[in-house]
Amino acid sequence: MPKVKTHKGTAKRIRKTKSGKLMARSTGQDHFNSRESGKTGTNKRRDLNLGKVHKKLNQVIPYK
After folding, report:
1. Which of 37, 42, 9, 36 is nearest to 24 (CA)?
2. Contact at 8 Å (CB) between 6 and 61?
3. d(CA 27, CA 30)
4. CA–CA distance, 21 with 61 (Å, rounded to integer)
5. pTM of the full predicted structure?
6. Residue 48's beta-bridge partner residues?
7. Contact indicator for 14, 57 with CB cutoff of 8 Å
C-alpha cells in the first residue's frame, strides 16, 4: 500500500506532542494588539491544545 501524503499546510501549523495531543498557535496575534489588555496579550502568546473534535487531523499529518 502506498504511503499517505502529508498535508504540508497543516503540518506547518499544528504539532503533535509525545502523548498524541495536537497543539496550535492561538489566532489574532499579527496586528491591532496595542488595544488588547495585558491579560489578553499574554493569553495569545500561549499555544492552544486542540480538542477531541480535531482528532481527524491525525489522518492529514500521519508522520509528524
Report:
1. 9
2. yes
3. 8
4. 13
5. 0.69
6. 24
7. yes
Decide if 14 contacts 50 (C-beta within 8 A): yes
- How many domains does the structure of the chain reveal? 1
Query: What is the C-alpha separation between 19 and 5, in angstroms, rounded?
Result: 22
State the Cα–Cα distance between residues 16 and 29, nearest whole angstrom. Answer: 22
Grid coordinates given for 55: 482528532
- The domain of 18 spans 8-60
Instruction: Output the domain CATH number for residue 12.
Output: 4.10.410.60
Compute the residue count for the chain. 64
| Residues 1-36 pLDDT 10s | 888 899 999 899 998 888 888 999 988 888 888 888
Distance CA 59, CA 19 (A): 16
Whether residue 2 lies inside any domain: the answer is: no
